[in-house]
Amino acid sequence: MTNLRIGHGYDVHQLVEGRKLILGGVEIPWERGLLGHSDADVLTHAVMDALSGAARLGDIGRLFPDTDPAYAGISSMKLLAEVGRLLKEQGCAVVNIDATLLAQAPKVGPYRQKMAENMAAALDIDPEQVNIKATTEEGLGFTGEGTGMAAHAVVLLEKTA
Ligand code: MG
Predict the structure, then answer these.
(1) pLDDT at 161
(2) Residue 4 Cα to ligand 1 middle (Å)
(3) N or C: less crowded end of the chain, CB within 10 Å?
């Protein structure tokens, strides 16, 4: 049996006024931000769900319940670091991460490298193992209308223990 484990993650958050826009641990200047219990970093949440899935840890809702005041306003990079710790406990090493942000605006191209570096630092891996990309949905649906953002992520883990 192979020691490779694939995982997929998906997340959505609503865009509202009066919130910071944080994606991949980068604060991006924008007129609105994502609504959520934590910092609502939708991209990082999709990555955490993919990692949790691959390691059979369930999902981030189970790991970090949004009813727990300990996670109110928390940086998702801290949660990602905790997922990384749990992965190591399970004997799982990250092979690579590929994440896609679905957003009509703003353009996040200039921040992609920093996002990859932030995620890599939280997981104690090399930024070369993390790929971040973004697409619009051509004005269609809730991302196209700008009422929310979504993110998908796939990861590959290797079970080393
Ligand atoms: Mg979320």
Answers:
(1) 80
(2) 26
(3) N
62 C-alpha vs ligand 1 centroid, how far in Å?
12
- For residue 92, the CA-to-ligand 1 centroid distance in Å is 23
Q: What is the 3-state secondary structure (H, E, C) of the chain?
A: CCCEEEEEEEEEEEEECCCCEEECCEEECCCCEECCCCCCCHHHHHHHHHHHHHCCCCCHHHHCCCCCHHHCCCCHHHHHHHHHHHHHHCCEEEEEEEEEEECCCCCCHHHHHHHHHHHHHHHCCCHHHEEEEEECCCCCHHHHCCCEEEEEEEEEEEECC
Say what the pLDDT of residue 21 is.
98
Ligand 1 mean position, distance from CA 13 (Å): 6
Residues 95, 129: contact at Cβ < 8 Å?
yes
147 pLDDT above the threshold of 90? yes
156 has a pLDDT exceeding 90: yes
User: Nearest 5 degrees, angle CA 117-CA 120-CA 124?
Assistant: 135
Rg (the chain; Cα; Å): 15
Does pTM top 0.90 for this prediction?
Answer: yes
